[in-house]
Sequence to fold (520 residues):
Amino acid sequence: MRNSYHDAIKLIKNQFWINFLNNVKEKEVFQTYKFTKSRLIEKLFSIQNSQKELKIEFNEKCETFLKVMYSSSLKIQINEELLLNESIQWSRVIKGKIKHTINFSAFRKALESDDMSFAIIQQAYKTILKIFNLVYSDLIENDYYSKIWREGMSIILKKSDKLNYSISKTYRIITLLNCLGKVAEKIIAVQLSYTAEINDKLLNFDQIRGRKQRSVINAVLNLVHDAQMAKSRENTLICLLLDVKEVFDHVALKQLVKILIRLKISVNLINWVKCFLQNRIIDLAFDDECQKLKKISTEISQDSFISLILFLIYIQYLFSKIHAKFENLQSLSYIDDMTLYIERRNIDKNVKILKNAAKIAFTWTENNVVQFNDSKSELIHFESHKTTLNQMIILLNNTIIKSKTCVWWLKVWLNRKLNFKVHVQTKIVTVTRTLHSLFRLMNNEWELNVKSEKQLYLTCITSISDYDVEIWWNNQKSYLVKFRKLQNAALRKILNVFQTSLIDAMQIEIEISSMKMQLD
Fold:
């Protein structure tokens, strides 16, 4: 009797699932793909404190996270008289900026404790737009960021692929901020980005992030282009890759204010930034529990719209100091990922220049409460010699950085000959793994319709294969064959045809272009 009861439940569930797949429409198809992924959220392990004592209780874990994640600022003297000397104009908040910021905010953002989403704010703005315009204009122009907007809920999440989860640094904090406060942040962030475009003193010229119409692809393309040009001139380009450790945790408020004063930023903006960063309160949540209202001494929040541009301004003088000493040295930066490189035939001299530049960079970071992650510092020579060069750089803290044949920078594998062999192999593995997860939905038993299967393929597969293709694609036949095999396997599965079916006919039937055309 019990077995027949459970069999009947399984049968009903199976019939319901098949009916759902047969009638799935538009965005509902992505819900089916989510069901193929694991959604298990495990509880946190015991956490070590600064004395390496394991903490098991929830409150003890909270105290450990608060001490590690939110460190206090260093004391830095500020000359308040400099606040009177300003030169960069700061425009008033106009109604158009407020309207654009509210209407173009993602309404599916995670909610804070007040449960007020951007969708609610957008509807409210249509009704009482005069009140919205008046409130935001007055608050921003009077250098004030509301106290209730400085409250947030911080969620503790595991970082992937870590060996020891008893260490607090193997976790990251995601803070859910008030959506009304995010509107004010976005207005200031957009205005700062615009000011950076018209004033070259605000951001370093080679800083790719924080500027309009520039992405991580632009940063990698710049480096690849310079390396290829060096090879065409029969020179060697030596590149030192640096990574800023815990970016937003090492932006001290007082030092940031000092830099803003030096850049002659508007007094109003400096006072707004001070108000924005001070007296913040969070609820710390994990393991289905929540610790209420803890006052924290933080720097800039990783989840804030304005945090990125503030950090880029914070490190602006690092590059100017290096370029003032070495004119031939070039740099690229994408948030916390930085690279210093130089092109010459004399390799030993290149290494010496990079070593001295690294010395300047590390000295600057020590004086400005910033740290580099030594474990992520790498050195590579872009050249076409058959023998691998073995030069190395010794940092100020005696860390030895040896030359590598392949490095991972901004999610792109770069090898010394720039043939992107490792990068393409990694991409092939990712596409294959994703395709096999889709094949679980594309079998005869579930009967997912062809239109939905095509939609899943275009969204989940081509988005991986076509991403960053402009960096590595140069009509390499060996790479084309590998991607073509994967596409052909997907087409046969979607159309449910024989192995010997014509490829061109399948492409016409399903209205998908050839792989050669996609890569071109």
Q: What stands out?
A: DSSP finds 20 helices and 14 strands in the chain. Confidence is low (pLDDT under 50) at residues 73-86. The two ends are 62 Å apart (CA to CA). Residues 86 and 264 are 5 Å apart (CA to CA).
